[in-house]
Amino acid sequence: MVQYETILNNTFDPFNHFGFLTHRVARLLDIRMQQRLKDLGYDFPSSCLGVLANLWYEDGVTQSHLGYTLDKNKSSINKMLEALVSYELIEKREDPQDKRNKLIYLTEKGKLFQASVEESSKDLRSEFINEYTEEELTTTKKVLKNFYLNLKNKISNDL
């Protein structure tokens, strides 16, 4: 097993690598949000919040649409949907245009849950992000958004 001191003395510095930093930040935010969800009485992965966020933006979409927008495979999306159904935050309805498909909708509870998630996000922001200026945060979000869109476009074109 490599000791941390060895890594520090090595010429490779993972903190100079974009992928390392973004992955670690995302992972730590995920862990913290998972704790917040448990405090609210919900024991499902915080990745399920991506499904809810998509539905808060656009309700009544297919599972494949969610998979595409969240960059998740069918199996992962299905597990997330099952968790959200079990907490009665979403429901599946038959697609009137194509009986083979199910459309995913928020329940009333799911719609109301948005306020709790937004409050938790504000708490996280004040806990971790308030030391940065609005300009720094705006620039960071702009760069990350552009990086994401460019990478997604590149990957989609390669498929």
TrEMBL record:
Q: Would the keyword Transcription regulation turn up in this protein's UniProt record?
A: yes
Task: Write out the GO MF terms.
Answer: DNA binding; DNA-binding transcription factor activity
Q: Which InterPro entries match?
A: HTH_MarR-typ, Tscrpt_reg_MarR-type_CS, WH-like_DNA-bd_sf, WH_DNA-bd_sf
Q: Say which species the protein is native to.
A: Portibacter lacus
Residues forming coiled coils: none
User: Per UniProt, which keywords does this protein have?
Assistant: DNA-binding, Transcription, Transcription regulation
What is the protein name for this chain? HTH marR-type domain-containing protein
Q: Does the keyword DNA-binding apply?
A: yes
Q: Which residues form the HTH marR-type domain?
A: 15-149
